[in-house]
Amino acid sequence: MSIAKVTEIKSSSKTSFDDTLKTGLARASKTLQNVRSAWISSQEVLLNDAGEITEYRILMKVTFVLND
């Protein structure tokens, strides 16, 4: 029997939501072992005064299996 835990991670990128997701998961995998899945809870963008996107942000929930 496996026991899993879910943790929330906020990640950001100046490139895209895709890059934000990949960066966040790569960083989570450095600290957490047995990462199995992730889902996006929310997305947001930051804008400059001209209304252009300057940063992409996501809040994701990451599931990992605990070691015995």
How does this structure look, described?
This protein has 68 residues and is α+β, with helices and mostly antiparallel strands. The chain has one domain: Dodecin subunit-like (2-Layer Sandwich), CATH 3.30.1660.10. 22% of the residues lie in helices and 53% in strands. A hairpin with a 5-residue loop joins strand 2 and strand 3. The termini are close together. The model has no long low-confidence stretch (mean pLDDT 95).
Please outline what is shown here.
The chain contains 1 helix and 3 strands. With 68 residues, it is of the alpha+beta class.
The CATH homologous superfamily corresponds to Flavin-binding protein dodecin
* Mean model confidence by pLDDT: 95
- Quaternary state, please? single chain
Radius of gyration, CA atoms, in whole angstroms: 14 Å
Keywords:
68 residues, alpha+beta, Dodecin subunit-like, 3-stranded antiparallel β-sheet, 1 helix, 3 strands
Write the topology of this structure.
Blueprint: E1 4-13, H1 17-31, E2 35-47, E3 53-65
Antiparallel strand pairs: 1-3, 2-3
